[in-house]
Design brief:
It is built from twelve helices and no strands. The chain is an all-alpha fold. It has one domain. α7 runs parallel beside α9.
Length: about 260
């Protein structure tokens, strides 16, 4: 029974943290390390629960995505697709090239905890720096800005940096309004996470197993519903409170984990 509760908790954590600037990778790595969680063989559990989080974005923004898909002849829809694909390219190329080294980094809880603290400080600094807004819609991003945001996303290959945090903060530094920056991060997550999932499945194919299908199903469903809540409420929250609460959380949580890791 305990392992099922742990799978449920891991799924909830994945869903709650994937689209917030607090790093889902760091939370799963640190939580799994603390709990001693051992899911199904290979990376099956981690890979499939990510798909649950992706599905949540697709559901929440289904109207937007369907509208773009059915009006590809329209310049605004073309600009939307262009910007997402351009921003996706750096992670696709660099991720595939450096997969071996990234996988090694993912095995270090201390790296993840340190990055949480450093990232929290960076968010506080960037929030104070950003004054001028030039872009308020995803479609209005230029190809050059989209590519720059894509390179920001690459920073999230270091566990603890946060894909959402890197893309949102990078967007804001380029003059993108908070809401648009957060939404672009959501949309960019779809090809990025889907691509990472497919590539992980390919690289880990020989070790994948459906043993523990119940654990996988629990984690997937938990990640989906938790992510659904986050995606629906995140835009309104940052409109009222900004990103400072997430920054202070990162610093507190990362600091606590460092203490626990260094003293156990």
């Amino acid at each position: 029974m305990q392992i099922y509760l742990e799978a449920l908790l891991m799924g909830v954590i994945e869903g709650l943290t994937e689209f917030l600037p607090i790093s889902s990778t760091a939370h799963l790595l640190l939580l799994g390390d603390m709990l001693g969680f051992e899911g199904p063989p290979g990376k099956t559990f981690e890979i499939v629960i990510q798909l649950g989080a992706i599905l949540a974005v697709c559901v929440v923004y289904s109207h937007k995505l369907w509208g773009v898909a059915t009006t590809l002849g329209d310049k605004r829809s073309q600009a939307f697709v262009r910007n997402v694909l351009i921003a996706f390219l750096p992670a696709a190329v660099i991720g595939a090239t450096l997969y071996k080294y990234i996988k090694q980094m993912l095995e270090s809880p201390t790296t993840a905890a340190t990055a949480l603290v450093v990232g929290g400080v960076a968010i506080l600094v960037i929030e104070r720096m950003v004054k001028r807004v030039r872009v308020t819609e995803v479609e209005d991003l230029s190809p050059k800005m989209s590519l720059a945001i894509g390179f920001c996303q690459v920073l999230a290959m270091v566990p603890g940096v946060s894909r959402a945090g890197a893309t949102i903060m990078g967007s804001m530094l380029l003059g993108v309004e908070r809401r648009a920056a957060a939404e672009f991060s959501f949309f960019l997550a779809i090809p990025t996470m889907a691509g990472a999932t497919v590539y992980s499945l390919y690289k880990n194919w020989s070790t994948l197993s459906l043993d523990g299908a119940g654990l996988i199903a629990i984690g997937f469903v938990a990640a989906f519903f938790a992510a659904l809540v986050v995606v629906k409420t995140f835009i309104g929250f940052i409109g009222r409170h900004g990103f400072a609460p997430f920054a202070w959380y990162r610093i507190a949580f990362g600091g606590l984990m460092l203490v626990l890791l260094l003293t156990r």
